[in-house]
Amino acid sequence: MVDLLQALDTHREAILLGEIGALLHMFGKCSSEFLIANSLKGGAKDSHQDLKHLPTLTPHLKNTMLRNAFSFILDNHGETLAGDFTDFITKYKRDKPDCILLCLFNTCHRMTSADEKGVVRRNQSIQDMWISTPFGHQAHRIDLDDVEKMRNQMDRQLGNAFQSYLSGINSIQELHEQVIRILKPCLSIALGETRLPANDVTLWAQSHGVASLYKPVLATLAMGFDPCPRKPNSNDFDYNNVRWRLFGIGWNGLGFIQRGRKPSDILSRQEILRDIGRDIQSLLEIRYPVGNRFYVDINGLFFTFPGLGDDEAVDLVKQLAPELVRIVRNSSQDEIWPFFTLSKPHRTLTVITKEMDVRNQIASVPKVSSFLSVDQDAEGRRESLLVGGPAMAGPAKGQDICPVCQVRSKMVREEACDTCEKRRSGRQRNWQANRNEQTIWVDEVADKNNRIALLTLRFDLSRWLSGEWLTTHLSQTFSDWFDSERMKRVLNNNQQRQKLEGIVSPVTPTKEAITNILGHVGTGDVTRDVGFKTAALNTFFEDVKAAESKNEPNYIVAFLENFRGRINDSPGYNMTAENLATAVFTQNPSPARLARIWEETKTFLDNWLAGIKDELLVVRHERLGFTTTAAIPGVHEGQTYRIAVPNLLPSPLVVLCLNKSARDYLTVESLKNFRFKQEGDRYLSGLPAVQCALEENGIQSWLDEATGMQTAAKTSSTVVQRDEFRVEPYLPFIVLVRSPVYYQVLLPADRIPDVLRLLLAHASERFCLVEGKLPLHVGLLVSKRKFPLYALIGGGRQVLDNPFFQNGISEIPWWSMSDQANNPFYGQYPSRAPDEGGHNLADLDQVDVAKRFWLTPGYFDFDFLGSTADIHRLSYELNEEGQPVRPFISYGHIAPRPFYLHRLKTLFDIWDPLTTHLGSTQRHHLEEAMTTKLEQWKTIKDNSISVFNSFAKAVLHNSFGNRWKELNEKKRDLLERSAEDGLLLEALERFQHVLKGDTSNE
């Protein structure tokens, strides 16, 4: 076997220099001149390839040391740049590449660029230029002065970094790290393409996307393989057929986290996964640079990877596997068992969805050995063992298996093994350094009713990362095409106009006309009447054009063949008019855009969490620190204890020993529900109650919280120093799992209404243009604070975790369409389910409440877990209408859960009049009357439903009495409909029983 890793190691400097060149190649776009030139009115020259934008860096890029180091062997001779390293900037576009390395680079640029299709797009005003998200939300307004300052700052810093490298002070690895650190924050608030709607790809995403494709190509050269196929009739490279694979390193990350018994276990496990991801990145991006990270979540990472043949690709993975396995197993102390996936070679990276599905299926199966699953297209997947499992020793005498890791042995009397205990103490030390942020103590999260709530949020990005939903977003409008300068020239040419009208008459900006024209000029024998067909085809583009001469690189046959490869790179695929029209008029799933998709969901979830912190928890919860007059025998630093304080209710109180002196302590549970009786019937509550009780009565007894055993403390009361009390704020939530598509947060149950309102508001703001296309599933589980945390997390994993929820539905739109009406690119929705390649332009229509469309809604589900046995209720099945239901939750014939997430707002709207006009007793009577009747009629069919609906209305009217007339017609209608579909009972169940009532309006 050829030592491929040695070849990568030998060429590390050359590969990393090539990546750096890719990161710098559009540097000049971070300039006010570029933005003005590409704005609505223009007024400047697009000089982004001019070296004047890098005055400090340019002399270093011209240093021959860079050119000499950037060298590869191809066909038995050396390949390098024709000029110097500035060629990456000045020669990367169109027909300027003058060497094989730049021709390959040009291909990577075209495949990554958000605008490589060159279609007709709209310019933004320079006074109102925005970076948007892939979901159409305007996220950042560009300031020209800021752009200029950023560019000048980057130029100076890059000049210093290159000078240190060229003088031998810094290594190539250090230069690589510095370049990314300098460029990423600044290029992330600049644009690679200013025109709408391609302004969703930042200059960093575009540059990094190019680098992530170029790197595997250079790695292929380094290992001595051809970077792409050769043309059949010559030895020349077919640059349009460069392909890439996706390499996945997977594991059961959610299972690893779920095994934690305490928040400190879980948070330390999150840190382990982050450390593993960082070390794997370092191995595959720096030490053996095969590609760049393309996607990451809790269950693993995916990297761009050379598009080698199966045998060569498998050999490379086999050589990488031992080191990758070592990283994962060493960092997790053999608790995580990695495996690997490898896609087949593709021209696009939308195969990520398929590879993620395969990874998640493998991760759900218990395993020890590390193996590789390779996609071999028609032959299916082939699996091969790479690294055997670790030696698993059983417990010795006096030992059992640690309940936390479930791998290592521990002494029977111990709570956890040494490794798990060290992780806990390490996480506690991290918390100690920043105690005013989120807590690590479940007891501090509990609300006044002693309840905690686990919110599980999951995005389903499968149809986005596959490119499917992007085929419903227009990349150019029909009218912009029709009004373009090239179209005007064709229409003003009588002969060409007549030929167009011979295809479709009249020639109008409609999808039907577009499809017919493209079918005529872009499919079949396009060489017949090539002059007209080329002119007509070019009306759909702006920055590129097909040529009618066979001697031109963009000869119409090659031009269309390139498009065919973008649509479907299977050898037997024949392009249709419908697919060509869809490709020309809808968004391109470029690597940069795909990366921006999952980065945006991560940003959304992080911003929502920041909103909880900054908007809902402005007034922090507080804990109390105190000092005893003497050390407490048998008490140890870092351990928690239950102390009995006379007359403090409820009792006991949980405290943490802060240091070895055994005198300083901190409360680690919510103090809101504590009371201390003073003279007469007067009570103090909350933190003042705890402080006063400790001052006046001291501490009666100490119990070790872990074992429940009495400490060695003396039986007389412990005296607390009156002048040593300390109050400190904290955030009463714990982020248990954080990833771009999966979040689990532990919160006080009584704050859930506000937290969910905030979530709906953020989603409405950022995702309003893709409503019905971006499924966000939200699960809410509430329990008492002593409920086993591992069981609660496991229950959260089960909520809405079923293939049913990936299905689309035929539904009437439920949202306000005013934003979509004002945005011509995001208002198109499909009338039916997608084909294998996505949705078709012919099936798209402007969204309308009078029509049904094929949608993928998000769902909401909730429950109260009184015991671990209640987790079995969290299962789903399909009802007669093909909708997912939870069979264990029903009210007679009504099966309300789960329901669409957008109806969560309806739940709040229902609850408002119930709390405003009815007391608690009346609400309970209303609930009892309805549920009793539904249960009685459960087995009765025929007209029982209509009879119940009449009964429900009567009960509602009776409950409200004269106040029913005080409600406006909209609220009365809402209450009556919610009584029929079950949402009224769901509101009563959720607020009165699960959350123990949100009675703020009473």
Q: Give average pLDDT, whole number.
A: 92
Taking the sheet with the most strands, its summary is: 6 strands, mixed
The fraction of residues assigned to DSSP E strands is: 5-15%
**What order do the strands of the largest sheet run in, or round the barrel if closed?**
6-7-5-8-9-10
Helix count? 34
Query: Percent range for helical residues?
Result: 40-55%
General shape: globular
Number of strands: 33
| Parts with pLDDT < 50 across at least 5 consecutive residues | 998-1002
Whole-number count of domains: 6
Rg, Å, rounded: 32 Å
Q: Which class of secondary structure composition applies to the elements? A: alpha+beta
Distance between the termini: 77 Å
Question: What would you note in describing this structure?
Answer:
The chain is an alpha+beta fold and 1002 residues long. It folds into six domains: 4-222, no CATH class; 243-389 and 401-433, Alpha-Beta Plaits; 442-465 and 588-620 and 731-872, Alpha-Beta Plaits, CATH 3.30.70; 476-585, no CATH class; 622-728; 885-1002, no CATH class. Helices cover 40% and strands 15% of the residues. The protein has 34 helices and 33 strands. The strands form ten sheets. It has a six-stranded mixed beta sheet with strand order 6-7-5-8-9-10, with helices on both faces. Strand 3 (130-132) and strand 4 form a beta hairpin. Helix 30 crosses helix 34. The termini are far apart.
In a nutshell, what does this entry contain?
The chain is α+β, with helices and mostly antiparallel strands.
Secondary structure topology:
Layout: H1 4-10, H2 12-24, H3 32-37, H4 58-61, H5 64-69, E1 72-74, E2 77-79, H6 87-90, H7 100-112, E3 130-132, E4 138-141, H8 144-166, H9 172-187, H10 203-222, E5 244-250, H11 253-258, H12 263-287, E6 293-297, E7 300-306, H13 310-332, E8 339-342, H14 352-363, E9 370-375, E10 381-387, E11 399-401, E12 409-411, H15 418-432, H16 442-445, E13 451-459, H17 462-465, H18 478-482, H19 485-491, H20 494-503, H21 511-522, H22 530-538, H23 556-567, H24 577-585, H25 591-616, E14 621-627, E15 640-644, E16 648-649, E17 653-657, E18 664-667, E19 675-677, E20 683-685, H26 687-697, E21 701-704, E22 726-730, E23 734-738, E24 742-748, H27 752-767, E25 776-784, H28 789-798, E26 809-811, H29 818-821, E27 828-830, E28 844-846, E29 853-855, E30 859-865, E31 877-878, E32 884-885, E33 899-900, H30 904-917, H31 920-936, H32 944-960, H33 969-981, H34 983-994
Parallel strand pairs: 8-9, 25-30
Antiparallel strand pairs: 1-2, 3-4, 5-7, 5-8, 6-7, 9-10, 11-12, 13-24, 13-25, 14-18, 14-22, 15-17, 15-21, 16-19, 17-18, 19-20, 23-24, 26-29, 27-28, 30-33, 31-32
Helix pairs in contact: 2-9, 2-10, 7-10, 8-9, 10-25, 12-13, 12-15, 21-22, 21-24, 25-27, 30-33, 30-34, 31-32, 31-34, 32-33
